[in-house]
Design goal:
By secondary structure, this protein is α/β, with parallel strands linked by helices. It is about 35% helix and about 25% strand. It is built from 14 helices and 21 strands. The strands form two sheets. It has a 16-stranded mixed β-sheet that branches. A five-stranded mixed β-sheet has the order 1-5-4-3-2, sandwiched between helices.
Length: about 475
């Protein structure tokens, strides 16, 4: 490729030398340079001092050198390119050299603090069940079609990622999954990668630091700018505290505490997996997972939401998830998994709530834990009555409140006042709260999630 073509839409500050020279390869390692290469000097990517690295690259055949705008040009027989942003330059030239492969592939980007790898491999399992070849690329690995998984120092680096996507296209693969970590986004490694859909496993960072939380949220939100079209779906965990920050887009919701495009009910967790009922716009069905933990229920729901939005057959989705096992290189956590039942119910009349508790307690050998998202327009006096019922039947109650809202805090206080015998906990995030509830319930415990009838209105704009 000619250098002038390679530099199209790249952040070039200054160019000294010839543009009509053929570039046969690109590298940031001077020892990997071959004849006709473009060498990009990135002080974070090489251990050599600047002059030594550039001289080594030219001696090995580099015909063009890219440097930062503050570095001095060395009098050598090569074209010098100055850029005001090394990472963006690397991303742009990698895209150009490999003919923009992300525009050809149908790519899904997965981001969040947890679950990226698992969701990616679950999608791969569904693709396998539907006889579709796919490529999945994580920070340190790439698995293409039915080939063995390959390991890399940094597979998301543009000069690794783009050739892998290009290779997938040459092999006839048309669907790809890319893990999008915070680091990859903030360092502009994905700046010139385009996605057909994005999955957010979570947005709340748990730092308990508003400035840090907001920063991480804003960085992850920038991934939306990489979608190919205005109708490209965003698959979102609606139980996440920051879910409503993405309203107004083509959002497809999934969760447990809130009804959405895909949600789960009647969940039974075991030390070896789980079984639950999936509720969707296409009906409901039961599913069995062979990986344990409530977090993997969420991961499966994210996968289901993406697959259904893509129009995949429900039976193939179910089969792919039930075939998914922890034998793939995915961390499933180090929790001490136990038998726990989780039931999600809309808030009901106080008498019906008493009857519901009695029914569940008759089947429960362990602790009864209530998860109570506080919201909606229920009268304060009704909250007091509910609090009294919860106090009679529940060992532990976790209140989920929006601490930005004084009304929800007042309602939580009114509930808590009625619970003299119940251990009370507080969380801001339903996704985190339900994991805490499972932990508190312990072996043979039961978690009852009570949702006020109009609580889902908060998420009405982010549920497709």
């Amino acid at each position: 490729m000619l250098l002038k073509e390679l530099l199209a839409s790249t952040p070039v500050y200054e160019l000294i030398g010839f543009r009509k020279i053929d570039i046969t390869g690109i590298t940031v390692d001077p020892e990997e340079v071959k004849k006709g290469y473009l060498f990009i000097y990135d002080p974070e990517m090489t251990q050599f001092p600047y002059e030594e690295a550039v001289k080594c690259a030219v001696e090995r055949g580099a015909v063009a050198i890219c440097i930062g705008q503050d570095q001095e040009i060395i009098p050598l027989n090569a074209t010098f390119i100055k850029t005001y942003h090394i990472n963006r330059f690397i991303s742009a030239v990698a895209r150009n050299f490999y003919h923009n492969p992300s525009q050809i592939l149908e790519l899904v980007g997965i981001t969040g603090s947890h679950g990226k790898s698992t969701v990616g491999w679950m999608i791969k399992s569904v693709l396998d069940a539907s006889k579709q070849d796919g490529v999945i690329i994580g920070n340190t690995y790439c698995q293409m079609g039915d080939q063995p998984c390959r390991l890399f120092k940094n597979a998301i680096f543009p000069l690794t990622l783009n050739p892998l996507l290009h290779e997938a296209i040459e092999k006839g693969i048309r669907i790809g999954v890319v893990e999008c970590s915070y680091t990859a986004i903030v360092k502009d490694l994905l700046r010139h990668i385009w996605f057909d859909s994005i999955i957010y496993t979570d947005l709340y960072t748990y730092f308990q630091n508003h400035r840090a939380d907001s920063h991480y949220l804003e960085i992850r939100k920038t991934l939306i700018d990489h979608l190919k079209g205005v109708n490209s779906p965003i698959i979102l965990n609606v139980d996440d505290y920051y879910a409503n920050q993405l309203k107004g887009r083509t959002v497809v919701g999934y969760g447990i505490c809130h009804k959405s495009y895909v949600y789960a009910q009647n969940i039974h967790l075991t030390p070896h997996g789980s079984r639950f009922t999936v509720k969707t716009s296409q009906g409901s069905w039961d599913i069995v997972l062979n990986v344990p933990g409530i977090h993997n229920v969420y991961n499966a729901l994210a996968t289901i939401a993406w697959c259904l939005k893509k129009g995949m057959d429900v039976e193939l989705v179910r089969r792919g998830l039930e075939n998914f096992e922890s034998g793939v290189p995915v961390e499933i956590g180090n929790d001490d998994y136990r038998n726990v039942d989780i039931y999600v119910r809309d808030m009901v009349d106080v008498n019906e709530l008493n009857a519901l508790y009695s029914e569940l307690k008759a089947e429960t050998k362990g602790k009864m834990v209530t998860l109570f998202p506080v919201g909606g327009r229920i009268d304060v006096s009704k909250y007091r009555e509910i609090g009294q019922v919860v106090n009679r039947h529940s060992n532990h109650c976790i209140l989920v409140t929006d601490y930005a809202s004084h009304s929800s805090m007042d309602k939580a206080f009114n509930i808590a006042q009625q619970m003299g015998n119940t251990v009370i906990g507080h969380e801001m995030d339903c996704y985190k709260a339900i994991q805490k509830a499972v932990e508190v319930a312990g072996e043979n415990g039961c978690v009852l999630v009570l949702s006020p009838p109009d609580f889902n209105e908060r998420f009405s704009t982010v549920i497709s």
